[in-house]
């Protein structure tokens, strides 16, 4: 059997060092992958004069599975978010953000286990119709929700819930005010929920969801929502388990998937060996689960969990005094 080839985008800032940690761990766990490296973000802009070179797009297309470090989109006129571009180009309609409590973090809660599933290509976040009036006094943008998009993402959420033995899906919306867009999303999600009588469904307005996530996060299981709400809620959920350094993300389409650290490129600590690589290691665990390699995924997650719980070789954000390579070595030793 030929080896599975993964496209690897090391990314900017701390990206290359945390991606390197994840690849070492995958190798130690016995995942026999081939890797093809591609540039994107500032690293690509410096080398090739563009944020997303054609070769990178070709490799993502060819290998179907990509592991990606954080990318920097330069702030200012004329640059579209690279992540948004990738989602649109490859039809990565489902953004899957699991958060799980690990003992030994600085988090305020224990026993959190929530998956936020966010529609990734439509709605307010997609940047349609953005314009500012000539006098600079009025700005507008457009939100478009389609029945097909809403059906696709809610079906994905219920299928994932069923596959993982989850008990409940919470449909998050603002249909009381945004009666057209959020209304269509809610109506479609209700129709989909009827096909899954084995899974409990609840509906919640987005502001109430934020409040309840902070007060009683243990009541949530799977959350499904539109693009902008999902962007906000998934970061809130990361805060429940110790921050973005503990939260991986997957962007999944019909025949391609990109797994990533969801935090930024942290240029202030780039090259200093200080970053916590947990987010991208857990993203590689998500990748293994997607590839049906559940045993190896569980093995790596357990090793990371044990190292964080012991706390004697953790990075500063986890309350430790150690560097990226120490933490990585601790996980390797565990494996």
UniProtKB/TrEMBL annotation:
The taxonomic lineage of its organism, from the top, reads: Bacteria, Pseudomonadati, Pseudomonadota, Gammaproteobacteria, Alteromonadales
Write down the species: Shewanella mangrovi
- Does this entry carry the keyword Oxidoreductase? yes
Q: Name one GO molecular function term.
A: NAD binding
Show where the Isopropylmalate dehydrogenase-like domain sits.
5-331
* UniProt cross-references to Gene3D superfamilies, sorted A to Z: Isopropylmalate Dehydrogenase
A GO biological process of this protein is: tricarboxylic acid cycle
The organism's superkingdom is given as: Bacteria
What Pfam families does the record point to?
Iso_dh
Q: What name goes with this protein?
A: Isocitrate dehydrogenase
Which enzyme type, at the first EC level? oxidoreductase
Q: What is its EC number?
A: 1.1.1.41
Question: Per its UniProt record, what SUPFAM superfamilies does this chain match?
Answer: Isocitrate/Isopropylmalate dehydrogenase-like
Keyword annotations for this protein? Oxidoreductase
| Record-linked PROSITE patterns | IDH_IMDH
Family statement: Belongs to the isocitrate and isopropylmalate dehydrogenases family.
Would the keyword Protease turn up in this protein's UniProt record?
no
